[in-house]
């Protein structure tokens, strides 16, 4: 009875926490599908997502490959946080990149078109109307483009990182990119984007017992959160997960065998102490980096997982793939707390965490903090005045104190009162 009541409390808490949950999932038809947990009449229904709409038009030739939130770049300010996180950068087939409004699906800028196929794209905002996009080409080229308002995109620079890129991750704040590919010479590397300078290149793993070294096959990459681009994760086509620390060595500091299929996506926990790993057969596991082993599995997926998304609260993680389902899990309990049938094979996924309700709650919290800090400052000034009066009184007797000092004491007492 106690366990049943505990589960009921957990269900109610999940329903409260996730009342504003929205997930955007790109599919093979070119649509971006919107899933949200509508108000429910019961606790069980409150854990379900619902497909409530879709953005875009039917066009298989421009199917989404990856989606990410835009972020404030190094030249932006904190006021751009909600503006940038309300923008979704979608990398599509055919060398297309769209900047979409997360709430309405409207394009914030013209479609960016580049030559050849692309692997991924990342956006950053330097003002409310200006945006930069970093495009990773399948050919191994990394190009940067900028736009202002409704103007045309301008190519600002490029460099060649390798000959055949398969995956990448970008930290727009520090201007770093980790990129990996397939075949010899295309192992994982870190570049300074502005200068096009290589900062790190991993050594290939040692030869096996047959004296054979397999060519690199970097199928997924990701910087570790809060590591300042010092640590990163790699998933390989030989179902190996690797954790690198650029301060330690050129080879991985941790290597684990994960399932028996190509690793398709890796993501970092909010604190950078865990990694989430998914593969082409539906395996979805947690790696505890401090313990050097897996901590458990997220169950329920039956097809290839194409992308993992981590909620900004760090408590939830979502995945989407070829089984046509969006699933959201609780990181601590590893339970699926919400799911939705998207009706099409999914290729990308991202949380829309900064809803109007969340922004209102953040504004309310900021007001409370401001009032509290004002009160603390006022209390501190009163305490200082009292100490000053005590020093004046203790230093001189009433008869020996000059008239000027007596007036000062009276003024201080009046201010305190």
Low-confidence stretches: 1-19, 39-46
Output mean pLDDT: 84
Main sheet characteristics: 5 strands, mixed
Q: Helical element count?
A: 4
Give the amount of beta strand, in percent.
35-45%
**Radius of gyration, Cα only, in angstroms?**
27 Å
Assembly state? single chain
Explain what this protein looks like in three dimensions.
The protein has a 5-stranded mixed sheet. The chain has a 4-stranded antiparallel sheet with strand order 3-2-1-29, with no helix packed on it. Strands 4-6-7-8 form a 4-stranded antiparallel sheet. It has helices at residues 2-17, 81-85, 356-395, 403-416, and strands spanning 22-27, 32-36, 50-55, 64-69, 71-72, 87-92, 96-101, 112-113, 118-125, 130-137, 141-148, 154-160, 165-171, 176-181, 189-192, 197-201, 218-223, 231-236, 240-245, 254-257, 263-268, 274-279, 284-288, 293-297, 305-310, 316-321, 325-330, 336-341, 346-351. The protein is α+β, with helices and mostly antiparallel strands. The chain has 4 helices and 29 strands.
């Amino acid at each position: 009875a106690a366990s049943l009541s505990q589960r009921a409390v957990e269900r109610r808490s999940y329903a409260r926490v996730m009342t504003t949950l929205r997930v955007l999932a790109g599919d093979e038809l070119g649509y971006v599908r919107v899933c949200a947990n509508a108000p429910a009449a019961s606790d069980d229904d409150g854990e379900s997502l619902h497909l409530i709409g879709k953005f875009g038009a039917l066009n298989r030739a421009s199917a989404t490959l990856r989606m990410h939130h835009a972020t404030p770049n190094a030249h932006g300010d904190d006021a751009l946080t909600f503006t940038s996180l309300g923008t979704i950068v979608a990398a599509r087939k055919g060398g297309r990149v769209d900047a979409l409004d997360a709430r309405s699906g409207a394009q914030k800028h013209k479609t960016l078109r580049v030559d050849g196929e692309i692997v991924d794209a990342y956006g950053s905002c330097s003002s409310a109307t200006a945006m930069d996009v970093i495009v990773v080409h399948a050919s191994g080229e990394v190009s940067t483009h900028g736009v202002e308002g409704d103007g045309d995109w301008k190519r600002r620079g490029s460099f060649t990182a390798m000959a055949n890129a398969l995956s990448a991750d970008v930290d727009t704040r520090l201007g770093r990119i980790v990129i990996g590919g397939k075949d010899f010479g295309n192992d994982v590397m870190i570049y300074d984007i502005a200068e096009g300078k290589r900062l790190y290149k991993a050594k290939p793993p040692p030869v096996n017992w047959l004296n054979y070294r397999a060519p690199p096959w970097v199928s997924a990459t990701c910087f570790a959160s809060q590591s300042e681009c010092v640590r990163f994760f790699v998933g390989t086509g030989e179902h190996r997960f690797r954790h690198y620390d650029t301060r330690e060595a050129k080879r991985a500091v941790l290597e684990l065998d994960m399932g028996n299929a190509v690793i398709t996506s890796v993501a970092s926990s909010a604190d950078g102490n865990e990694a989430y790993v998914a593969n082409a057969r539906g395996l979805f596991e947690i790696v505890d980096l401090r313990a050097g082993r897996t901590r458990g599995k997220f169950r329920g997926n039956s097809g290839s997982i194409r992308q993992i998304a981590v909620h900004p609260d760090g408590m939830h993680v979502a995945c989407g793939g070829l089984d046509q389902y969006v699933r959201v899990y609780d990181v601590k309990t590893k339970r699926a707390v919400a799911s939705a049938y998207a009706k099409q094979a999914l290729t990308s996924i991202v949380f829309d965490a900064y809803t109007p309700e969340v922004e209102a709650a953040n504004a309310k919290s900021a007001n409370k903090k401001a009032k509290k800090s004002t009160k603390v400052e006022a209390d501190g000034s009163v305490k200082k005045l009292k100490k000053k009066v005590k020093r004046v009184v203790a230093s001189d007797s009433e008869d020996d104190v000059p008239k000027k000092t007596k007036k000062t004491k009276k003024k201080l007492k009046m201010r305190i009162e």
